[in-house]
Amino acid sequence: MPGLFTPGFVETIAVDSKEGLVPLAQSRGYNVLFLTGRVSLSALKDSADDIITSGVEGLDKLLHGGVPRGHSVIVEGPPGAGKTVFSFGFLYHGAVDKAEPGIYVTLEESPASIRRNMARFGMSVEELEEKNMLAVLDFSIYHGLPADLGEEERNAEFLARAVARSVRDKAESIKAKRLVVDSLTAILDHYPETRRRAEFLNLLATLRYSGLTSFLLTETPPHDQPNLVQSYLVDGNIMLRLVPSGSQGEMIRTVQIPKMRGLKHDFEIHPFQISDHGIVVFPDDRVYSGAQAVS
Ligand SMILES: Nc1ncnc2c1ncn2[C@@H]1O[C@H](COP(=O)(O)OP(=O)(O)O)[C@@H](O)[C@H]1O
Ligand SMILES: [Mg+2]
What we know:
Elements: E1 12-13, H1 22-27, E2 31-32, E3 51-52, H2 59-62, E4 67-68, E5 72-77, H3 83-97, E6 102-106, H4 111-120, H5 125-130, E7 134-138, H6 159-174, E8 178-182, H7 184-188, H8 193-209, E9 213-219, E10 236-245, E11 250-260, E12 270-275, E13 278-281
Parallel strand pairs: 1-2, 5-9, 5-10, 6-7, 6-8, 8-9
Antiparallel strand pairs: 3-4, 10-11, 11-12, 12-13
The structure holds adenosine-5'-diphosphate (ADP) and magnesium ion (MG).
């Protein structure tokens, strides 16, 4: 079957195991996942027919209910904007209130730091880990990579695929429904511009295949640079900003949803705060009015 497994922009070959193509693809060194024949993201199951609550207080009102299940959503903001805390709420609410196990992939903070920080907001990671309701996958300094990864996958060049594989396996074993990748920037920064799109598409395909609803945390790039992550490839985008306010240069935190496929959502910029319980969005308050909101 020459041609079928031509290395293309998506290097994870997806096949239906019933067709017996898996061993063939594997023998050619591919990371076999799913699908039939040529990889087409639109052919992947789209389970966005139900809406899941985000667990972030006030956010679901802006979303007019929640996030469509199976969506991959970029949560973008500058350092300190609250992306990590924001994503804690999403996973914790899923595990505790909705019985939906979650996975937290960390590339920046160590798992110990994640556990400590979540505990500060009254969320016990250990308790959830013991019940298999939450798994923290440690890619922070490469020492936490699963032991069964091959030499090649330990190489930074294969980071995105190693993450994809770990997520897929963990999602299967704990039946995870929610995922946070903290951060996507830390993964894609390993690749030259020319490969980022392919690596990102490959990762997205895995998340969709696994049926995960995902928050992919992304650093806002400096002003004069385009976003390295193609926001148009994902289902949704939530922007967190730190905005100067008042004469003393204080900052306020704002949230805006520029994109959420399949939803009639709010577009405006709203304030939020980080409290001892996590994020609180104020959906009825506005930061700007009229044309300013676009700036
Ligand atoms: N208990 C708290 N109450 C209020 N604000 C807090 C609390 N804990 C942390 N913060 C704020 O949250 C910020 C960090 O948020 P974080 O989610 O880690 O940001 P990001 O992941 O976007 O870099 C800190 O800089 C601090 O301003
Ligand atoms: Mg963070």
